[in-house]
């Protein structure tokens, strides 16, 4: 048995295996390496980074390989405390472990091994793995899952008393139906005592069908040496599978989407139908907001208290909805600020725009923000009324209380004065300019 105790003060090193090419997922040479494929607004490895950060590692080694220079650049910007470790050629998970431990030769403590292509890995399962590893003073601890069909995953064999026996790969049990019938599988996620791990990985050989070094053999060496190998069953087995193809990416996407929605709902946000709603990572939604079905909200959007979005709405990056704002069906908002109580309820595009307090944007309105070379801003003042079918050609401003008639085309630089009504193509002022109407008590309350 390892001499270490069960205290949580032990140093922790994290080893992330991220060298794979992901041939079934990255279709062309132009696609990013697998761990940088996007899922709900951020790369796969960013989801993993957030999950493992809760463990508080003191050292982190990320093993890279395919397009390593791209992954290393991402690490430098988004995970600077991680040390990239190049695996070239790629000779298996055991080889990756050898290289990672060589990069931290002086480290003593616990080592957690994870994969960079498991974005849906539950932080609570990681915490459970490390906690039990330390409580049991184990030399190696394997995170396992139980499912009706582990398919191609390695099976966990236990002795009659429940202790670890060995891990058998599915391909090595093709003629052993009794092993394939086992429902407990190996996740490939481990916790080790560094002092026990080092001699175990030094003893690895490539005497197998693939001619590679396997991390599972390190676990076997530790057990054969009479050291303690513990098994911890994950609470979320569906979150343990890696992403190797588009179908598995869709599975991870669905699990993460539901998890994000559940988190927002726990904070007081109404999501009428989470199964038809997509909210990417890093979206801020205040309690009291209401999200209707078939809505897609991209990373970086902010939604205020009492705001309503949907159904069939799309908010793109940097869209901000203040308190009480309403974005309705088939409305797209991109890089725009929608003021308190402002409304755009039907079939509208608001791009690079600001919409003032209490303004009403009618059906079929377009802010024409792109001139073929550059994007320009549209400003719609407080309590303005934009008539159905209006095209606002940016850069342009509609003043406080201004009105556009149905199907008006307000051309670039032809601002609508405060309180004025414009009609026609191109839009022209109709009648006398009137003073902007003061906000009513109801409008102020909505704001």
Secondary structure: elements and pairs:
Layout: E1 12-18, E2 38-39, E3 42-43, H1 44-53, E4 59-64, H2 68-78, E5 82-86, H3 93-103, E6 110-115, H4 123-135, E7 140-146, E8 155-158, E9 164-168, H5 177-180, E10 184-193, H6 194-202, H7 215-224, E11 229-233, H8 246-266, E12 270-271, E13 278-279, E14 284-285, E15 290-291, E16 296-297, E17 302-303, E18 308-309, E19 314-315, E20 320-321, E21 326-334, E22 337-338, E23 343-351, E24 353-355, E25 360-361, E26 366-368, E27 378-380, E28 385-386, E29 391-393, E30 396-398, E31 403-404, E32 409-410, E33 421-423, E34 428-429, H9 441-446
Parallel strand pairs: 1-4, 1-6, 4-5, 7-11, 12-15, 13-16, 14-17, 15-18, 16-19, 17-20, 18-21, 19-21, 20-22, 21-23, 22-24, 23-25, 24-27, 25-28, 26-29, 27-30, 28-31, 29-32, 31-33
Antiparallel strand pairs: 2-3, 6-10, 7-10, 8-9, 33-34
């Amino acid at each position: 048995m390892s001499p270490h105790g069960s205290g949580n003060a032990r140093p922790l090193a994290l080893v992330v295996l991220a060298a794979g090419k992901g041939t079934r997922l990255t279709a062309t040479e132009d696609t990013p390496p697998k761990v940088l494929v996007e899922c709900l607004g951020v790369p796969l490895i960013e989801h993993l980074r957030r999950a493992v950060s809760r463990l508080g590692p003191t050292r982190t080694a990320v093993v890279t390989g395919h397009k390593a220079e791209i992954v290393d650049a991402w690490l430098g910007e988004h995970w600077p405390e991680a040390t990239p470790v190049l695996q070239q050629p790629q000779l298996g998970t055991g080889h990756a472990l050898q290289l990672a431990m060589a990069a931290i030769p002086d480290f003593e403590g616990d080592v957690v091994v994870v994969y960079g292509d498991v974005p849906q890995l539950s932080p609570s399962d990681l915490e459970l793995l490390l906690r039990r590893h330390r409580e049991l003073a184990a030399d190696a601890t394997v995170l396992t899952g139980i499912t009706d069909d582990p398919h191609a995953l390695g099976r966990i064999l236990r002795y009659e008393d429940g202790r670890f026996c060995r891990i058998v790969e599915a391909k090595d049990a093709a003629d052993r139906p009794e092993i394939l019938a086992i429902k407990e599988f190996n996740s490939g996620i481990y916790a080790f005592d560094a002092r026990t791990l080092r001699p175990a990985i030094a003893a690895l050989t490539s005497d197998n069908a693939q001619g590679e070094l396997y991390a599972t053999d390190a676990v076997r060496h530790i057990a054969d040496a009479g050291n303690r190998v513990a098994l911890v069953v994950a609470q979320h087995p569906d979150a343990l599978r890696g992403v190797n193809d588009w179908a598995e990416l869709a599975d991870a996407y669905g699990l993460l989407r539901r998890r994000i929605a559940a988190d927002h709902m726990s904070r007081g946000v109404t999501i009428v139908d989470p199964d038809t709603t997509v909210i990417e990572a890093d979206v801020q939604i205040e309690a009291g907001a209401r999200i209707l079905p078939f809505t897609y909200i991209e990373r970086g959007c902010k939604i205020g208290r009492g705001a309503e979005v949907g159904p069939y709405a799309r908010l793109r990056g940097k869209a901000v909805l203040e308190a009480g704002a309403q974005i309705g069906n088939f409305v797209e908002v991109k890089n725009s600020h929608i003021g308190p109580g402002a409304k755009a309820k039907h079939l509208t595009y608001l791009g690079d725009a600001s919409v003032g307090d209490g303004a009403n944007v009618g059906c079929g309105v377009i802010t024409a923000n792109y001139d073929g070379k550059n994007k320009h801003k549209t400003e719609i003042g407080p309590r303005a009324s934009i008539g159905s079918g209006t095209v606002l050609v940016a850069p342009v401003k509609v003043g406080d209380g201004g009105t556009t008639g149905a199907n008006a085309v307000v051309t670039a630089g032809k601002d609508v004065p405060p309180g004025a009504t414009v009609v026609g193509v191109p839009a022209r002022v109709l009648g006398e300019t009137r003073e902007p109407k003061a906000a009513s008590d109801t409008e102020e309350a909505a704001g």
